[in-house]
Design goal:
This protein has about 290 residues and is an alpha/beta fold. It has a single domain (about 1-255), classed as Vaccinia Virus protein VP39 (Rossmann fold, 3-Layer(aba) Sandwich). The protein starts with a helix and ends with a helix. Helices cover about 50% and strands about 15% of the residues. The chain is built from nine helices and nine strands. A seven-stranded mixed sheet has the order 5-2-1-6-7-9-8, sandwiched between helices. The chain has a two-stranded antiparallel sheet with strand order 3-4.
Length: about 290
């Protein structure tokens, strides 16, 4: 019995090693363990380790994001570009007005993102405050190596975004689709991803509201190609998903802890201010007697 248990553990270790080797590539998995520099409130936080990894594997010349909001995903891409010293141009396309799924908001969100971008990544990153369709003509066909689609999530809107921007992807091109595991409030990303599976290799993460990874190009990097092939192996798919889901959860937890600490600091500061104000009020009352 002991020998049987030993063999089972050996097989599990070999499976884990195989799964990690499928996503390792030349850079290994070190990038996935980087500490995120930017953790705003976002439904994308749990995919930040994968953002680091995918950039390390593609080494893209051009990254375009459609739908940026507070910049959780976009600045993860930018952080990877800077950390890897890549010669990459990054573009965030958004009206920064919101929509029926993300909610509508004022200009303060753009001001926040613009200020952070200017302070950290302006030498290679540009914010384009316009609609996705209006911006497409400014990019040549076959020029984008990594495209992230995260705008309005109705099926019609997502299909329009994909059809408009698909020709822009290069022969090394990869497309990311967020919210593929949301099936409510007229979300239709899953339906579009199902259609893309017919023509392209796909890996689908279910955590963090879901992320679809689509290998559009026919000259994908070895790391990306092996990663997409792992989707056909149930064990490898499970191990890779668990690997990124656990790292992603740590990003989410870090953001929650940071928010709690920030709220606690504000509460303590308010309490200190009140305590300092009490003697002044008492002295004033005494002088008025």
């Amino acid at each position: 019995m002991a020998q049987v248990g030993h063999r089972e553990r050996e097989r599990e270790r070999e499976s884990d090693q195989l799964s990690i080797s499928l996503i390792a590539g030349d850079e290994g998995v070190k990038a996935a363990f980087w500490r995120p520099a930017h953790l705003p409130r976002s439904a994308w936080l749990e995919h930040i380790p994968f953002a680091f990894w995918i950039v390390s594997q593609i080494k893209p010349g051009t990254i375009v994001e459609l739908g940026t909001h507070f910049g959780a995903s976009y600045f993860a891409f930018c952080q990877a570009v800077e950390s890897l010293s890549l010669d990459t141009r990054c573009y965030a396309v958004d009206t920064w007005k919101g929509d029926e799924h993300a909610g509508f908001y004022g200009g303060g969100v753009f001001d926040y993102v613009n200020a952070y971008n200017n302070a950290q990544y302006s030498r290679f990153s540009s914010l384009i405050r316009a609609s996705f369709s209006d911006t497409a003509s400014y990019f040549e066909d076959g020029s984008v190596d990594l495209l992230h689609v995260d705008g309005l999530h109705t099926e019609a809107a997502v299909r329009s975004d994909v059809e408009t921007w698909l020709p822009k992807l290069s022969r090394r091109g990869v497309m990311l689709l967020h919210d593929v595991n949301v099936r409510e409030r007229d979300f239709g990303v899953a339906a579009v991803l199902k259609q893309l599976r017919v023509q392209y290799p796909v890996f689908e993460f279910l955590h963090g509201h879901g992320l679809g990874v689509v290998g559009v190009g026919d000259e994908l990097s070895a790391g990306v190609s092996n990663f997409l092939k792992a989707n056909g192996d149930a064990t490898a798919r499970r191990d890779i998903t668990n690997f990124f889901a656990r790292l992603g959860r740590a990003c989410y937890d870090a953001q929650v802890v940071g928010r709690i600490e920030q709220d606690r600091s504000k509460t303590l500061a308010a309490g200190t201010k009140m305590r300092r104000a009490v003697p002044t009020k008492l002295l004033k009352s005494e002088s008025e007697k």
